[in-house]
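Researcher: We're teaching a course module on how sequence relates to structure. For the next exercise, students receive a sequence and then see the predicted structure as tokens, so they can try to spot secondary structure elements on their own. Here is the exercise chain.
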Amino acid sequence: MTAHDLALKCATMEVSAPEVSSQAISNIETGRRDKEGRRRRSLTVDELMSLAVALEVSPVDLLVPAELDDDAPYSITPGLEMTARQARDWIGGVGFLPSAGPAEMARALQEMPRSRQSRVATRWLEQTNKALAEERRGQGAGWDGDD
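Model: And here is the predicted structure for the students to work with:
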């Protein structure tokens, strides 16, 4: 799809984002920089959502490339790297930052809608139990869950 085609799709009634022009898309794709080295054109949340609707993809797939393997490293910020899976989970609201300790996780759970709390807590427990079991297998010890 060309930038022009995507801009036309963004201008449709369904997306209703005519400000996402072909020039704006070009600036987003190329990441042109100003004289100070900063990006000349930032992507707003509204633009991200409009592009996701126009492309018929999940916004997380625009933020973390879908072609990245789950275990591939991915930089969330210049100073924070995690796996692509961790990034997708965190962006999708079903995971935590790798540096989050129990207090931060508990606070994050309290702040999220109740409808998501149980899913996120259950998923975290499942992942933690799986990691512990793999760690114990790697140490040669069997784990029956009664420790």
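Model: If you want an answer key for the exercise: The longest strand covers residues 73-77. The chain has a mean pLDDT of 86.
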